[in-house]
Each structure stands twice: as C-alpha cells, then as structure tokens.
Amino acid sequence: MGILKADNLEIRYDRQVIFTGLDFLVQTGRITTIIGPNGCGKSTMLKALGRILKPQSGAVYLDGQDMRSLDTRDIASRLALLPQNPVAPNELKVEELIGYGRFPHRGKGPNQAAADRQAIERAMEMTNIARFRKRALGSLSGGERQKVWLAMALAQETEVLLLDEPTTYLDIVHQLDVLKIVRQLNRERQCTVVMVLHDINQAARFSHVIAAVKQGRVIACGSPQQIVTPEVLKQVFSIEARIMFDSSEGVPVCFSYDNPQSDAAACQGDE
C-alpha cells in the first residue's frame, strides 16, 4: 500500500525538463532511499513529493488525496520535509527551533500546549540532544546542528518524513547517529521515510526500498538485494562494482568499485 504517490509528473527548472512521465509509489511504513549521480534529479524528485516544487503536469497524492486540494497546514501536519543545508539565526536556542515543528498543530484544542511540550521532549530524547536545549545554534558542531534540525522534523509528528541528504558534511559517527535515529523512528512510530543518500552501503543498510535515478528517470526500484548489484550500479553510476553479502546486517555491501571510462579517458589524454 502506498501513502505517497507521484502520477505522471513533469517537472522543469526554467525551460529544462528534469522529469517527464514520472510515476513513483512510496510504500507505507517503509524507508525508501533515492540514490543516483549528482544532478540526476534526486532532490528535485523529493521536493516534488513534498509539494515544495509544483509540477508542470501530473499530480502527487498523499493518502489518496491530491495534494493540490490540501492547504499547507494540513500537509504539514501529515508530512515533514528536511531540506539540504537548512538555515536559522545562530542566536536561536535549540528548544525554540524544535518548537517550530509544532506549528501545524497549534490551536487545535485546550490541551495543545501540553501536547506540544511532550512532542518537543520526545524529539529531543530520541535525538539525544536534551542537554543542548538552552544552547544557541551557533555554538553547536555540524553534527549536533543536524540532530537539532532532525528533532524539529520529529516534533512535527507526521506520518511521512522526507530527508534531503541528511548526512551530508557529517563525519561517519554523526552519519550513523542520524541514520539510526531514522530507523528507530520508522520502527517505533511506523513513520514512512523517503530520503536522498549518496552512500550506497548506507542506503542498503538503512532502507527497505532503494530507488535508483539517472537522467531524470527511475532506472530501478526494489529491495537493497535487488538494487545493490554490479549490473544496476553499472547502469546507474557507470562503475564496475564488487558486491559481497554482510550476514550480520543481512544486506549487500559494495566493497570495491572502479570507473573504467575515467581510466580510458586518462589514457587517451596521455597520447
């Protein structure tokens, strides 16, 4: 069953067509990761699913409802999107920023203030940042700030969470922290997650479904075992990959890869 569906989307930037005839179904209660080369349309696809980008044609459906018929607050109470490189004033306190995630729920009843407080506390607990609550954003490291932004999205308490490259610029420890939080959210709250990642092995480890995108098309979509193969990775990234199976995690691992085309181009340049 799909909670989020793109139906025959055409998406353009200025006059450049990024996607045409895009159909995509996000499975309810699963973690779906979009992978692909730089500039292939991964972030564009995510923004279209979150109604940040308006398609030239086609529609996106949230739980069967055309998102064009829903107001912004209604969508925000059901779907959260954390973009790449979000910004906020450095002097803003951590707790204040997380509180902004409660905007779509404000004014719903006499007990809403207590519900907001509880949601903020749950988000800080899940991301392990309660000790930072009174600190200014500008005093935090990059990894700590990313956890704060993630906590704001968690405080929104939506059915669907869209994450655009949530591990970019983070060291490996903070990358794992963020992805483990995402997995915990999915397991404990059955939250549907769609995220963009560059690391193929992280996508395999933390996803139920992987969608491989190239040149504005979904080339392949399936389980990590179906996508992290030499054949698919060659088709999408033009690399020769060697894959092994990690029995401890139950997922395929790309442990070596090369780009023969680059070697050939280098040889031609030396002639």
The number of helical runs is: 10
Q: How much is the average pLDDT?
A: 93
State the major sheet.
6 strands, mixed
Cα separation of the termini: 56 Å
Q: For the CA atoms, what is the radius of gyration? A: 20 Å
Low-pLDDT segments, ≥5 res: 264-271
Provide a descriptive summary of the structure in words.
By secondary structure, the protein is α/β, with parallel strands linked by helices. The protein has a single domain, classed as Rossmann fold, CATH 3.40.50.300. Helices cover 36% and strands 29% of the residues. It is built from 10 helices and 12 strands. The strands form 3 sheets. It has a 6-stranded mixed beta sheet with strand order 6-7-8-3-9-10, sandwiched between helices. A 4-stranded antiparallel beta sheet has the order 2-1-4-5, with helices on one face. Strands 11-12 form a two-stranded antiparallel ribbon. Helix 4 runs antiparallel to helix 5 and helix 5 runs parallel beside helix 6 (172-189). GO terms for molecular function: ATP binding; ATP hydrolysis activity. One of its GO terms (cellular component) is plasma membrane. It is a peripheral membrane protein. This is Iron complex transport system ATP-binding protein. Keywords: ATP-binding, Cell membrane, Ion transport, Iron, Iron transport, Membrane, Nucleotide-binding, Transport.
